[in-house]
Write a structure and sequence with these properties.
There is one protein chain. The longest helix has 11 residues, at 24-34. With 117 residues, the protein is an alpha+beta fold. The chain is globular, with a radius of gyration of 15 Å. The chain has 2 helices and 5 strands, in the order βαββββα. Helices cover 16% and strands 25% of the residues. It has a 5-stranded mixed beta sheet. The protein has one domain (2-98). Strand 2 (43-48) and strand 3 form a beta hairpin.
């Protein structure tokens, strides 16, 4: 069940604050109604609370929904505050976020855009 998260195609970060009392149906409705996205897609949707110390991840694993939660003992997630976006993340940006770093690393190398020869 949990190993399937590595097979998701897209990772979306829902910016702004989310009421962390919401569970499966509440988070699905945010995805569907606010952002017009498909909660059944092969994607992980990330949500963060007001205090920025709790993160929830929701995804569909072909048999049902999986809801995971992480709460930091110390510190806060560096969460974007634009309240009207669902931003796509790379796997590297997800790692940075979960490690307490900003997803916008100023010294990170960006892909060059050149084609392979």
């Amino acid at each position: 069940m949990l190993g399937d998260i590595s097979r998701v195609q897209k990772i979306y970060l829902v910016t702004g604050r989310t009421d962390m009392r919401k569970s499966f149906d509440g988070l699905m409705s945010i995805i569907r109604d606010t952002y017009q996205m498909d909660p059944y897609a092969n994607a992980v949707y990330l949500f963060c609370g007001r205090k920025h110390n709790t993160l929830k991840a929701l995804y569909f694993d072909k048999t049902g929904f999986v809801l995971m939660q992480k709460r930091l003992d110390q510190g806060r997630f560096q969460w974007p505050q634009d309240p009207s976006q669902a931003r796509e993340l790379t796997r590297q940006e997800l790692r940075w976020l979960l490690e307490g770093l900003s997803i916008n690393q100023p010294k990170a190398l960006k892909p060059s855009g050149k084609k392979d020869f």
